[in-house]
């Protein structure tokens, strides 16, 4: 799944605009829930910038220090983003909620909050629509969760998760602000902030788990692993495929290490077989950029 910058730029623009109006609203009306939402949007804005940085760094050409390229920069920065969602967004929202539950400020006219929430919902909803549409183009016939689990392109599902959490958070805040004023209960504002913090924490854990798996060296799926082993085994020079290891260097680069037992051949024939096997794999699987074939006894 190739990284789509369109969804990232859309989310960046939306979050930056929303963060400004949320902070103005939160400070004006002394709403902890709105301030928490402002922090949430500000963190999301920083996250989009970090994702763009990761994409840019991952495109650097291989050099002496990184002979296999800089593709894993994308996985590193995606992991940092997932941690920031909890470390800044979730923790500050929970802190704001606790503070306002202990000392709830008096309720003020919520009209401005409602205007901000409606505008934010429009911007976040638009960003979510773009992210879902871009992800839907590459998920094929897989389920949404299945496509996320199998995706090797963190920005695509990071933006999707962030925007989904943002829309859900806005619904929570809007509902509890309304109920707080309807029942004249100032504590509901603090509860809204707590719920937003818990939501961000859950999203952070899910994203960190997926990003960590890729950063640690996640390989190709078992079905593709089996097909490549079968493809190698069909070569007339191969007696047996002993083992096959793989890891994603980036969403578009896979490295393979194949341990092969060859028939009784001389050195030149083995070298020809290795070149032939590499070409056959790359013809069917163009994402496989690095192929190391290790001859071994059967």
UniProtKB/TrEMBL annotation:
<dbReference type="InterPro" id="IPR027469">
    <property type="entry name" value="Cation_efflux_TMD_sf"/>
</dbReference>
<feature type="domain" description="Cation efflux protein transmembrane">
    <location>
        <begin position="10"/>
        <end position="216"/>
    </location>
</feature>
<feature type="transmembrane region" description="Helical">
    <location>
        <begin position="157"/>
        <end position="179"/>
    </location>
</feature>
<keyword id="KW-0472">Membrane</keyword>
<dbReference type="InterPro" id="IPR002524">
    <property type="entry name" value="Cation_efflux"/>
</dbReference>
<feature type="transmembrane region" description="Helical">
    <location>
        <begin position="33"/>
        <end position="53"/>
    </location>
</feature>
<dbReference type="InterPro" id="IPR058533">
    <property type="entry name" value="Cation_efflux_TM"/>
</dbReference>
<dbReference type="InterPro" id="IPR036837">
    <property type="entry name" value="Cation_efflux_CTD_sf"/>
</dbReference>
<feature type="transmembrane region" description="Helical">
    <location>
        <begin position="111"/>
        <end position="132"/>
    </location>
</feature>
<dbReference type="InterPro" id="IPR040177">
    <property type="entry name" value="SLC30A9"/>
</dbReference>
<keyword id="KW-0813">Transport</keyword>
<feature type="transmembrane region" description="Helical">
    <location>
        <begin position="191"/>
        <end position="208"/>
    </location>
</feature>
<protein>
    <submittedName>
        <fullName>Cation diffusion facilitator family transporter</fullName>
    </submittedName>
</protein>
<dbReference type="Pfam" id="PF01545">
    <property type="entry name" value="Cation_efflux"/>
</dbReference>
<feature type="transmembrane region" description="Helical">
    <location>
        <begin position="74"/>
        <end position="99"/>
    </location>
</feature>
<feature type="transmembrane region" description="Helical">
    <location>
        <begin position="7"/>
        <end position="27"/>
    </location>
</feature>
<keyword id="KW-0812">Transmembrane</keyword>
<keyword id="KW-1133">Transmembrane helix</keyword>
């Amino acid at each position: 799944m190739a990284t789509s910058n369109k969804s990232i730029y859309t989310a960046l623009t939306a979050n930056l605009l929303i963060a400004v109006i949320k902070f103005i609203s939160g400070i004006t009306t002394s709403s902890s829930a709105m301030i928490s939402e402002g922090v949430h949007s500000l963190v999301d804005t920083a996250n989009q910038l970090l994702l763009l940085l990761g994409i840019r760094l991952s495109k650097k050409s291989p050099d002496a220090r990184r002979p296999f390229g800089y593709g894993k920069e994308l996985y590193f920065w995606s992991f940092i983003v997932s941690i920031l969602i909890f470390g800044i967004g979730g923790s500050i929202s929970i802190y704001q909620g606790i503070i306002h539950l202990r000392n709830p400020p008096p309720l003020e006219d919520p009209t401005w909050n409602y205007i901000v929430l409606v505008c934010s919902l429009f911007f976040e909803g638009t960003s979510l629509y773009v992210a879902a549409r871009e992800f839907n183009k590459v998920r094929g016939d897989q389920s949404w969760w299945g496509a996320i689990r199998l995706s090797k392109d963190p920005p695509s599902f990071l933006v999707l998760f962030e925007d989904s959490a943002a829309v859900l958070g806005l619904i929570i805040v809007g509902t509890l602000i309304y109920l707080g004023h309807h029942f004249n209960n100032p504590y509901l504002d603090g509860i809204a902030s707590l719920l937003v913090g818990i939501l961000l924490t859950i999203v952070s854990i899910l994203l960190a788990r997926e990003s960590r798996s890729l950063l640690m060296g996640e390989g190709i799926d078992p079905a593709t692993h089996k097909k490549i082993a079968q493809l190698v085994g069909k070569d007339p020079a191969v007696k047996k495929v002993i083992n096959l290891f793989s890891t994603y260097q980036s969403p578009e680069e896979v490295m393979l290490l194949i341990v092969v037992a060859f028939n009784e051949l001389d050195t030149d024939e083995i070298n020809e077989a290795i070149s032939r096997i590499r070409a056959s794999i790359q013809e069917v699987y163009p994402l496989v950029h690095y192929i190391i074939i290790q001859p071994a006894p059967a």
